[in-house]
Amino acid sequence: MLDGTDNFATRFAINRVSLARGVPWIYGGVLGATGMIMTVFPQGGPCLRCLFPEAVEPGRATEGERAERAVINTVVTVVASLQVTEAYKILLDCPAHNRGLLILDLWEGSLTRMAVERDPACTACTVTA
Predict the structure, then answer these.
(1) pTM of the predicted model, to two decimals?
(2) Which CATH number fits the domain 8-128, given the four candidates 2.60.120.200, 3.40.50.720, 2.40.440.10, 3.90.550.10?
């Protein structure tokens, strides 16, 4: 499954379905010139809830805050390309999957990999493990 949604409620629903059905999914998110992707493997985790135990949904934003949340359209394309590449790897049973969270900043020209561990207190994947 590939995620192109814009809110955590839907992303957590995808996370639950992925875990319940044992289907990998590739999370993608963007904000400003920054993007991130993480491939969730139901067998062994970690899952999205391990990464974001208590995701905060944006509340009523001021005009300035809304402007700061604007997305540079090119970051969407790059995140989607990385997600599709991960999907190819899964479909081809390639062992070189992305493990952890990839964070890219197009403005700065950086790509960082952050390790994400399965949270033993996770309310999503520890129940299905």
Answers:
(1) 0.84
(2) 3.40.50.720
